[in-house]
C-alpha cells in the first residue's frame, strides 16, 4: 500500500493528446500529469506529507534559499515499458544511494532509500499511461531536492522539498544514437579536489553551461572537461562520463576519485565490459595521450555514457589547437554492442544477469 496521498489532476491531458505527445518526444520538454512530493522540516519534524499532486507551478517566496545559494541536488532514471506489460526501472537503489551522497555534500537531509523508491513507484503507477512504447523511448524520472526555506542568511536550510517529475523521452541528442562532436574546454574547469564534483547538484551543471556554449560556438555538441589541478587529464562531459576503447579491445576511463560523477550507466557498462573478459583500467587519461592514440590508431573508439544519453559514440574531438576524428567517425563496434546489450537489459529483451532491473508497476 503506497504511503502517498493522492490529489488527482483536475484536468489531465486527454488520452488522444497524450498519444500525440508520446509519438516523438524531444528530451525534457513534455511532463506527465502528476508529480511526487515530500517535504522536510528541521527541529525534529523530518520528512512529512508524502503525496502525489498535479504537475504544476511551485509557489516560492523570492527569498527561497535555493534561488540564492543553489542548495539543490537531483537524480535521473528512466522507466521502461517491457514486452510483458510491466514497467521497470534500472538500478534505482544506486541512484537513491548517490542521492544520499549528494545530500550529505550539499548539507541537505538524507531521504530514506525506501521513500526514494516508493516515490518512483507511486508516480509511475499513477502516470503509467505516460510511459511511451516506441523503440528507444522511456519515461525519464527526475527526482530533486532543494532548500525551500524563505531565508537569505547563508546556512543549510531548515525547510526542504523533495519532488519527482516525469517526462516521456526519446534520444537525448537530436541525431539519435549517432556520433557527437566534443569541444575540450581548456579554459574552465567543472570541479576541483574537495569540491562538489562527485555530487549531482545543480551548481555543477550551472558552472558547465558557459563551456557548453563555447562548444556550440565551435560547432560541437558537447563539452569535455579536464582536471583542475593539471589541466591535462580527462574528467567528464557536461552531463556524461567518458570511456576510451583501445584497438586491443581494452578500455580506459578516468577514475571517479571525487571530482567526477559516479555514473550508474558508467559502472553498469564497465561491468558488462568485464563480463566479456575485456580489461577495464580506471586510471587518469591524459588528453595528450588520447590525441596521440587517436592519431596512431591505438585508440579505436571513444564513447560518452549517462542515463539520459545511454551510450553515445564520440566522432570528433576539438580544442584550441587541435581537431581530430576518432577512427572513421562512425559508431564503434564495442560502443554499439554495449548500447544494444544495456538497452536490451533495460527494455526486458535480454537476460538481466546482475539483477539490475526493478519492477515499478
Ligand atoms: C542523466 O543522464 O540522467 C543526467 O542527469 C544528465 C543530464 C540530462 C543532466
Oligomer: single chain
Based on the structure given, which CATH architecture of the largest domain is correct?
Answer: Alpha-Beta Barrel
Roughly how many Å apart are the termini? 13 Å
Total E-strand runs: 18
Work out the helicity level: 25-40%
Please give a structural write-up.
- It is built from eight helices and 18 strands.
- The protein is α+β, with helices and mostly antiparallel strands and 361 residues long.
- The strands form two sheets. Strands 1, 2, 3, 4, 5, 6, 7, 8 and 18 form a nine-stranded mixed sheet that branches.
- The two termini are 13 Å apart.
- The chain has helices at 15-23, 65-69, 92-105, 113-126, 202-217, 264-275, 287-296, 333-346, and strands spanning 5-6, 34-41, 46-54, 72-74, 77-81, 87-90, 138-147, 159-169, 180-185, 222-226, 234-237, 241-246, 251-253, 280-282, 299-306, 310-319, 322-325, 357-359.
- The radius of gyration is 21 Å and the shape is globular.
- The mean pLDDT is 96.
- The chain has two domains: 5-169, Aminotransferase class 4, branched-chain amino acid transferase, N-terminal domain (D-amino Acid Aminotransferase, Chain A, domain 1, 2-Layer Sandwich); 180-346, Alpha-Beta Barrel (D-amino Acid Aminotransferase, Chain A, domain 2), CATH 3.20.10.
- The longest helix is centred in the middle third of the chain and has 16 residues, at 202-217.
- It is 26% helix and 29% strand.
- The structure holds 2-OXO-4-methylpentanoic acid.
- Residues 76, 239, 306-308 line the site of 2-OXO-4-methylpentanoic acid.
Amino acid at each position: 500500500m503506497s504511503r502517498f496521498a493522492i490529489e488527482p489532476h483536475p484536468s489531465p491531458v486527454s488520452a488522444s493528446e497524450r498519444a500525440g505527445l508520446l509519438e516523438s518526444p524531444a528530451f525534457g520538454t513534455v511532463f506527465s500529469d502528476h508529480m511526487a512530493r515530500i517535504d522536510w522540516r528541521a527541529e525534529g519534524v523530518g520528512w512529512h506529507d508524502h503525496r502525489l499532486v498535479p504537475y504544476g507551478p511551485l509557489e516560492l517566496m523570492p527569498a527561497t534559499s535555493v534561488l540564492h545559494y543553489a542548495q539543490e541536488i537531483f537524480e535521473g532514471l528512466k522507466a521502461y515499458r517491457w514486452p510483458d506489460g510491466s514497467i521497470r526501472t534500472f538500478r534505482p537503489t544506486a541512484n537513491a544511494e548517490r542521492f544520499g551522497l549528494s545530500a550529505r555534500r550539499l548539507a541537505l537531509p538524507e531521504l530514506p532509500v525506501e521513500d526514494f523508491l516508493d516515490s518512483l513507484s507511486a508516480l509511475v503507477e499513477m502516470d503509467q499511461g505516460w510511459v511511451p512504447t516506441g523503440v528507444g523511448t522511456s519515461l525519464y524520472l527526475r527526482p530533486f531536492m532543494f532548500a525551500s526555506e524563505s531565508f537569505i542568511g547563508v546556512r543549510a536550510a531548515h525547510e526542504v522539498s523533495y519532488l519527482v517529475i516525469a517526462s516521456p523521452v526519446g534520444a537525448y541528442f537530436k541525431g539519435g544514437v549517432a556520433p557527437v562532436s566534443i569541444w575540450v574546454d581548456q579554459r574552465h574547469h567543472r570541479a576541483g579536489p574537495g569540491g562538489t564534483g562527485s555530487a549531482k547538484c545543480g551548481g555543477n551543471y550551472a558552472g558547465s553551461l558557459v563551456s557548453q556554449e563555447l562548444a556550440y560556438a565551435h560547432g560541437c555538441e558537447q563539452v569535455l572537461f579536464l582536471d583542475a589541478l593539471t589541466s591535462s587529464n580527462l574528467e567528464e562531459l557536461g552531463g556524461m562520463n567518458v570511456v576510451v576503447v583501445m584497438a586491443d579491445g581494452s578500455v580506459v576511463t578516468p577514475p571517479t576519485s571525487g571530482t567526477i560523477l559516479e555514473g550508474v550507466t558508467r559502472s553498469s557498462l564497465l561491468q558488462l565490459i568485464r563480463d566479456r573478459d575485456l580489461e577495464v583500467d580506471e586510471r587518469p587519461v591524459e588528453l595528450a595521450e588520447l590525441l596521440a592514440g587517436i592519431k596512431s590508431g591505438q585508440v579505436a573508439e571513444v564513447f560518452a555514457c549517462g542515463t539520459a544519453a545511454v551510450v553515445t559514440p564520440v566522432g570528433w574531438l576539438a580544442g584550441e589547437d587541435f581537431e581530430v576524428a576518432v577512427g572513421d567517425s562512425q559508431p564503434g563496434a564495442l560502443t554499439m554492442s554495449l548500447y544494444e546489450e544495456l538497452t536490451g537489459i533495460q527494455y526486458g529483451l535480454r537476460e538481466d544477469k546482475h539483477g539490475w532491473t526493478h519492477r515499478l508497476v
